[in-house]
Amino acid sequence: MNPALTLATTRRILTQLRHDPRTVVMLVLVPTLLMVLLRYVFDSAAVFSHVAPALLGVFPFLIMFLIASITTLRERTTATLERLMTLPIGRLDLLFGYALAFGAIAVVQVALAAGVSLWWLGLDLAGSVVLLLVIAVLDALLGMALGLFVSAFARTEFQAIQFMPVFVLPQILLCGLFVPRGDMGWLLRWLSDVMPLSYAVEALSRVTASSTVDAVILRDLVIVAGCALLALVLGAATLRRRTP
């Protein structure tokens, strides 16, 4: 990897996004708006505090997956990626450049959603705000990394969206958001244990419930970060110049 080339890719992506205000608004504001909607759907601070920590991870994960997969595919179908790969730039430089760009957006996205939830919507937090933000940002980066990875297997933007039921929805259903993982059958529990979103939701729930940073939270952080990194490496290995 060449840090200069990675940062150049990051600047290019951020410059492109600056000229696409609708995408920026979606990236930054939609998770916050969904949290506000959720608060008034339940109309109860206690219920909101119970489900909101998990959704602080789920909403950014989902949105970053969609944006990253479609953006990467668009660059391939418009031959932008093909032109870039004629330059002396490595695949990891490209993908980590994307990761830094979307990571910067994820920080703003998650900070806004968490700030509004904590100081306006009444989310009860027993642990560290900083740790909550770190876990939620890692979850957004996981969604971004998976989006970059699956974009290599799609030929159109519609196909990229079709990967969401395969890579995203099962994780949302089995992460413990609707039913505690311990109450699931053995097969569903096993599937939940191999899905990284389960560990992000578990870490967010433990941070909001306790001020103690225990071994389970640290394990969950390592698993989520490791899965994001693995998805980026796999994305680099399957990266093609263009879609046939």
UniProtKB/TrEMBL annotation:
Keyword Membrane tagged: yes
InterPro entries hit by this protein: ABC-2_transporter_component, ABC2_TM, ABC2_TM_bact-type, ABC_2_transport
Pfam entry (one): ABC2_membrane
GO cellular component, one term: ATP-binding cassette (ABC) transporter complex
Keyword tags: Antibiotic resistance, Cell membrane, Membrane, Transmembrane, Transmembrane helix, Transport
Chief localisation class: membrane
GO molecular function: ABC-type transporter activity
Keyword Nuclease: no
Tree of life domain: Bacteria
Transmembrane segments: 21-42, 54-73, 94-120, 126-153, 160-179, 221-239
Membrane topology of this protein: Multi-pass membrane protein
Subcellular compartments: Cell membrane
Gene Ontology terms: biological process: response to antibiotic
Residue span, ABC transmembrane type-2 domain: 14-242
Family: Belongs to the ABC-2 integral membrane protein family.
Name of the protein in its database record: Transport permease protein
Organism this protein belongs to: Amycolatopsis australiensis
